[in-house]
């Protein structure tokens, strides 16, 4: 997709994400017109129209834009790969029946038809939209916050630690938002007949295991997502910086937006492959615990084994997460470009106070 550099991008941006400041020139007239007082405007946290104002870095509008970008990048991409996620979860839970990627799709097609490939898409969309909002919005906040604490010199010297700390802090919050949706999603996808989706699955889940049951998988989810996100953000930032430093002859600010977004996708894809490997054992645990009532981590280890935890469903997850992460960074940075912000990475750590 081409993202041309155009003077005004306002028509491309949903109207609820910005406010406009229109000004109609007063025609010259010898007759003095009576001016009516305008009501005092209350402070707004909406994103200003890019054609009128530039969003100040690290302002409330900046963090609002990053949060909105996170919603689009995570919610849409996870929903798009629902068929892959569904096969992966079933391979983890029932490997005797779902022996491989190809046979897994074949079993689903025979038993549930094409419609079955998208079972659980609603909790996926809503859960990962909530997670993406917190993940990206709070990452930008904590990255700046920890840079301010470290000071200019240390923030630049230890920028990777800033990336790691900022992403870990953001993911702790993001997983609290995701966990209930993830619990229902796994149950819907791996137990045919349990429920059609979120609307009937959520109340049925609560009746069976109580509200606390929605967070039964929170600790394993943290175990999966925190290492994943730390790898995702720190690796992405360093890969993008290395690409601009070693592979592109121009400074980042002289590169076209199309090239910058290509770098974002490439850096995201490479980071995603590493993320999938690091977080896969915990991903198997999350699927196992959310599928079986009363199951424990010990039960999962005994049944799957250490090797099974590390490798079951891994090839499919590498393909899924690599593509997913690359697309997420591409969408996130494309949204930032549309609202007048620079793409992520390839520049020094945030300036401190």
Automatic annotation (TrEMBL):
Keywords: Membrane, Mitochondrion, Mitochondrion inner membrane, Repeat, Transit peptide, Transmembrane, Transmembrane helix, Transport. It is found in: Mitochondrion inner membrane. GO terms for cellular component: mitochondrial inner membrane. Coiled coil: none annotated. Pfam families: Mito_carr (PF00153). It is a multi-pass membrane protein. InterPro entries: MCP_transmembrane (IPR018108), SLC25A3/Pic2/Mir1-like (IPR044677). The keyword Translocase does not apply. Belongs to the mitochondrial carrier (TC 2.A.29) family. This is Solute carrier family 25 (Mitochondrial phosphate transporter), member 3. It comes from Salvia splendens (Scarlet sage).
